[in-house]
Amino acid sequence: MQVKIADPWKNILQNEFEKPYFKNLIEFVKQEYSNYTCYPKGKDIFAAFDFCSLNDLKVVIIGQDPYHGPNQANGLCFSVKDGIAYPPSLKNIFKEISTDLNQEIPESGNLEKWAKQGVLLLNATLTVKAHEAGSHQKQGWETFTDQVIKQISNEKENIVFLLWGGFAKKKVKLIDKKKHHILESGHPSPLSANRGYWFGNEHFSKTNAFLKSIHKNEIDW
């Protein structure tokens, strides 16, 4: 499995690709994809980096695992392919956007349009075995994606990090708070959202207000 990743990203991550843990990880992923059904498709594993250019980066959203049902995962966290029903967390994200920005809920749950505007939709683990949530955790992906967050923190400034839920909030230690803008809330999953930890966080209007304050184009959510 060749790691094909756009040049600006490649430049800041090249050291990781050479490390033993990453070579072991790629070998593990190859074996899993050869022997089982895994998601997303091989060509989409690094889609978060394909659709969001490092040079245009404005916002980072951190997820945990790809969706593990058929035809859902497209390599962007929380996103699904066109024509696929919204999973519960995505439904709650769209509900919050609708209330926060007073706009219609979109027809498609494909978030490529966010990524193209500079939103990195990064899962901590980039692959999963079908119907087995968390099956590719602790194989090296987290080491890699933690390094992605650290490198963004080091190389960029004024990035908005949206940390939703306990897992994402732990990543705060990787981010230089003096250089970046961090917004935290509960997770959009029904369990958290229905307890009042998600709805009303206004993260989408707050993100745009911050981007406007530093003279950057707002995100069309």
Automatic annotation (TrEMBL):
Pfam family, one: UDG
UniProt EC number: 3.2.2.27
Swiss-Prot/TrEMBL catalytic activity: Hydrolyzes single-stranded DNA or mismatched double-stranded DNA and polynucleotides, releasing free uracil
Gene Ontology MF annotations: uracil DNA N-glycosylase activity
Keyword terms of this UniProt record: Cytoplasm, DNA damage, DNA repair, Hydrolase
Active-site annotation: 65 (proton acceptor)
Residue ranges of every copy of the Uracil-DNA glycosylase-like domain listed in the record: 49-211
Location(s), subcellular: Cytoplasm
Record GO biological process: base-excision repair, AP site formation via deaminated base removal
GO annotation, cellular component aspect: cytoplasm
Stated family: Belongs to the uracil-DNA glycosylase (UDG) superfamily. UNG family.
Function according to Swiss-Prot or TrEMBL: Excises uracil residues from the DNA which can arise as a result of misincorporation of dUMP residues by DNA polymerase or due to deamination of cytosine.
Protein name: Uracil-DNA glycosylase
Protein source organism: Polaribacter vadi
